Amino acid sequence: MTDVNKIEARVRPYESAYSIGELAGMFGITPRAIRFYEDRGLLSPRRVGKTRIFGDRERVRLDFILRGNRLGITLAEIGKWLDLYDMDDGKRRQYEVLLQGSRQRIAELERQREDIDETLKELRSIEAIALQGLKDDGVALHESSANSTQRVERKS
């Protein structure tokens, strides 16, 4: 049993306890990242002296924060969603806000995908013009990999 668990067993014997290092290791992040989220008000560990005690609530919140980050959701929005979980008005409001936020993010990503597809189409058109120009100028192109990297050799 770690020192944190010994302290926690006296404070709240019914909940798991994690040190900042244990929590960081659990999620593959640094303790500094956890302190960053704490500074932003997204995590609120209990303290015993100078020791931070992270319980199950903070572990679940950190999982949610990291998932939101991977999905491109801002910390401000993640904070709003986390605040909903602290409210006692039932889960309906939580689900409504999550649904709205999820749909908004899906729409943003779909717009980005359309923009990327259009950009790729334009770049492929430019690539085709450049390839044709080189071919017309007597330059031999050799396919060197699956990602269309080509080696150019001038024909003699």
Keyphrases for this structure?
mainly alpha, two-stranded antiparallel ribbon, 10% strand
Strand content is 5-15%
Shape: elongated
Class based on secondary structure composition and strand pairing: mainly alpha
The number of E-state strands comes to 4
The CATH topology of the largest domain, please?
A: Multidrug-efflux Transporter Regulator, Chain: A, Domain 2
- C-alpha Rg, in Å? 26 Å
- How are the strands ordered across the major sheet? 1-2
Q: On the 0-100 scale, what is the average pLDDT?
A: 83
Unreliable runs, pLDDT <50, ≥5 residues? none
CATH architecture of the largest domain: Orthogonal Bundle
Give the tally of structural domains: 2
State the helicity in percent bands.
55-70%
Describe the protein's architecture and organization.
- The protein is mainly alpha-helical.
- The protein has two domains: 1-71, Multidrug-efflux Transporter Regulator, Chain: A, Domain 2 (Orthogonal Bundle), CATH 1.10.1660; 87-156, no CATH class.
- The chain contains six helices and four strands.
- It has helices at 3-11, 20-27, 31-39, 56-70, 75-85, 91-136; strands at 46-48, 51-53, 139-143, 150-154.
- Strands 1-2 form a two-stranded antiparallel ribbon. It has a two-stranded antiparallel sheet with strand order 3-4.
- Helix 4 (56-70) packs antiparallel against helix 5.
- The longest helix is centred in the C-terminal third of the chain and has 46 residues, at 91-136.
Brief synopsis:
63% of the residues lie in helices and 10% in strands. With 156 residues, it is mainly alpha-helical.
